[in-house]
C-alpha cells in the first residue's frame, strides 16, 4: 500500500534515552514522498543522512550551548527510487525528498478513438 | 507498550527516557499551543541570554518584546506546510501561532537587546540594566 511506503522505526528504550528523536511530518504526492524534520540548532554539515537495506536514518549532533545527539530511522519500501533521494536544510528544518520509481507513478493512458 | 531493555541499565535508562519525555527533551519543538517554544535562559554578570528553538519560522515574523524591564514575550506563527496535491502520512510537527512569556531574572536594558536567528534557533542577548549589574566593592583595611 502506498501510504505505508515510508514508516518510522521504533528503537529500543536505551537507544532512545540517549538520543533526541526529531519530530517529523511525512507527505505523499503523486511524484514523491516528502519527509520534513525539525532539527533546530544543528549545522547542515552536522547532519548525516543514510539509506541502507531499505532503512533511511537521519542522525547528527547539535553543538553550542545545548549539545546533543539525535537520530531517527524510517523503513522505505521499494516504491522509492533510493538513488534519487535528495535533502536540503533551511532554518533548522531538514527536508528529504524521496521520489517514487517510474513504475508506481500514476500515468495517464491515452484512449484511442 | 512493549519495550526491549538491554543490559543491567535498561530499566534506569527507560526511567531517564520517561523523565526526558516529561521535560520535552525528546522533541525539539514543544507544543505550539499553550506552552510555546522550548527555551533556555542563561545569565552572566552583564547580560541574560535566551535561546528559543523555532525551526521553520520566518525570522521576519518573530515578534520579541520586553515590557516593564523584565517581562520577555516571544510570539509568532509557524505556517502549516502547504504542498499542492499532498496527502498527510504522518504529522508530528506543530504549526500555528505560538506565544511564550517569561519573567527574566533581572531588569534589562530593553533598547539594547540583540536578536539573531540561526539554524532555526532565536538567540537573544539582553544586557542587564546598570543598576542591577554586580559591582566590586573595595574593602578598606583600617589599622
User: What percent strand of chain A?
Assistant: 35-45%
Average pLDDT of chain A: 86
| Number of helical stretches of at least 4 residues of chain B | 1
Which ranges of chain A are low-confidence, i.e. pLDDT below 50, for 5 or more consecutive residues?
A: none
Mean pLDDT of chain B: 79
Q: What would the principal axes of the Cα set say about the shape of chain A?
A: elongated
Q: In which range does the helix fraction of chain A lie?
A: under 10%
Give the spatial strand order of the biggest sheet of chain A. 1-6-5-4
Low-confidence stretches of chain B: 1-17, 20-34
Jot down its keywords.
heterodimer, A: mainly beta, 8 strands, B: about 140 residues, mainly beta, Immunoglobulin-like, 3-stranded antiparallel beta sheet, disordered N terminus
Describe the structure.
The complex is a heterodimer of chains A (113) and B (143). Chain A is mainly beta. Chain A is built from one helix and eight strands. Chain A has one helix at residues 13-18, and strands at 6-8, 24-28, 32-38, 47-52, 55-62, 68-76, 86-90, 93-99. In chain A, strand 5 (55-62) and strand 6 (68-76) form a beta hairpin. Helix content of chain B is 9%, strand content 35%. In chain B, strands 1-2-8-7 form a four-stranded antiparallel sheet, with no helix packed on it. In chain B, a hairpin with a 3-residue loop joins strand 1 and strand 2.
